[in-house]
């Protein structure tokens, strides 16, 4: 009887508001591709209790090289936020994804043109075969092509296929293309493997397209996928990413970040990238993360989309 009495009192207090049961929050579902966007996210997931203490995080892999599959995932609300390039988001908006909101551009560097060590002048690439990873019509292709055109160089671009197929061609003089345009962390992986495996043909960074196009271009961005995301979730994620990028700026954290990210690329994307290559990428500052307000970066985004892609920035980028 006493137990029943206590149960009745507890129920009464609950109904009167004396007890407020703790409701578990839904996880923040964050989608990303296997490119420079991923490294800080892997660090955030590893140290979630430090950087995102009031929330849980669920990572989702973007379908590589398949915009239609990515669109279907967003329409189906398989994620709350997603990282992908700025021009891709504009095309989704133009294609009718009206719920898509730009949180902010945040990757400002991370595409490079590798040339053989013996190449002295980019003018020699005029009319030559340049391979692109992951393929044609991607930002590494368009951005690099525009950067070369501004220097009077018109190369013949072709798709490289997978990373291993590309590196098989890069190893020897007789199969090597004139140059390779690729994103990080693939660039750092190739620079590392050529030393580790003693490639016959050696490569170096011959061009930073971002610098060639004006010094700073918004390559990658963070997007909110639908309107039902609680504002506090968005605020918490933005704050966490800002803290992680600050943490990554300290060279004392590079080895740890590289170890975490190498495991993440291997386990999450099935993409083997050695930690030493990622550490070299961080030490060389070949990727720069800085989440910024779309309104504050309106001029740079409009200029980038117009001059590189010939696209007019939709007003929806700035008014949501």
Characterization of the model:
There is one protein chain. By secondary structure, the protein is an alpha/beta fold. It folds into 2 domains: 28-109 and 219-317, Periplasmic binding protein-like II (D-Maltodextrin-Binding Protein, domain 2), CATH 3.40.190; 111-212, 3-Layer(aba) Sandwich (D-Maltodextrin-Binding Protein, domain 2). Helices cover 42% and strands 17% of the residues. The chain has 13 helices and 11 strands. It has helices at 2-15, 38-46, 48-51, 67-75, 86-94, 139-149, 163-170, 186-196, 209-212, 231-248, 254-269, 275-283, 298-309; strands at residues 28-32, 57-61, 81-85, 101-109, 111-116, 129-132, 156-159, 179-183, 203-207, 220-224, 288-289. The strands form 2 sheets. It has a 6-stranded mixed beta sheet with strand order 2-1-3-10-4-11. Strands 7-6-8-5-9 form a 5-stranded mixed beta sheet, with helices on both faces. Strand 6 (129-132), helix 6 (139-149) and strand 7 form a beta-alpha-beta unit. Helix 2 (38-46) crosses helix 11 (254-269), helix 8 (186-196) crosses helix 12 (275-283) and helix 11 (254-269) crosses helix 12 (275-283). It is globular.
